[in-house]
Amino acid sequence: MDPDAVAKAFVDHYYSTFDANRAGLGNLYQEGSMLTFEGQKIQGSQSIVAKLTSLPFQQCKHNITTVDCQPSGAGGMLVFVSGTLQLAGEQHALKFSQMFHLMPTPQGSFYVLNDIFRLNYT
Amino acid sequence: MEEQIDLVGKAFIDHYYHLLDNDRPALSSLYRPSSMLTFEGQKILGVEDITAKLTSLPFDQCQHVISTIDSQPSTFAGGIVVFVSGSLQLPGEEHHLRFSQMFHLVPVLEGNFFVQNDMFLLNYG
Given CB atoms, is A74 within the 8 Å cutoff of chain B? Predict the structure, then answer.
């Protein structure tokens, strides 16, 4: 399957899950997964989901501007995303960049090994 | 272990942008034939083409000012992913350009790293 198509499919799935049901992100991470969220380091699926579900907003909508991907070796894929994040009730959307390092699962899909998120302040 | 990763990531970033700002041809020492660069959406493969791209960017001088560096181990035998944000000042330009960049670094025997994956994006306001 075309790597760009795989990356785009993952990104679509990730952010639609994030925007609709953050707890559902749990099956995209494993015990060895790492998230750095605005400089804060979190390890493991449980802690990562706890962090994401405790973010101080009820609703949000990610709009993706760019998706770049490259194979990282041994079946892994690096995905580099930029876009905006609209929080309910906020007038201005926040700009963000995020990188994922995806690793294949035996079932033929991917999980997130590395995840780094940063807001882009102007 | 995490602190070590941060130190390694920061040391690499300092070295990388120092070369980019002062001696762009020397960047070829950081890439290999298997390296990949995606520069503003354009995909480039291999140390020769990557070095050609970076040395042909349409400015003689630039200054990168780094705002954030985030590093994580990538599990591939000592590999590291590094995520950078900062601004880029070009001479004669009044406004800085903001950018994000990610690197996947793979260790080589001498204790150094080469860039296996590199993705660069300007952040437009």
Answer: yes
> Domain count of chain B?
1
Strand ranges, E, within chain B: 31-39, 42-45, 63-73, 80-89, 97-107, 113-123
Going along chain A from its start, the domains and CATH numbers come out as 3-119 (3.10.450.50)
> Per-residue confidence at B117, pLDDT binned at 50, 70, 90?
very high
What is the distance in angstroms between the Cα of A48 and the nearest Cα belonging to chain B? Answer: 15
Whether A76 and B119 lie within 8 Å, measured CB to CB: no
Q: What is the pTM of this model?
A: 0.94
The pLDDT, as a whole number, for residue B124 is: 79
Average pLDDT, chain B: 92
Nearest to A116 among B2, B79, B83 (CB): B83
Mean pLDDT, chain A, whole residue set: 94
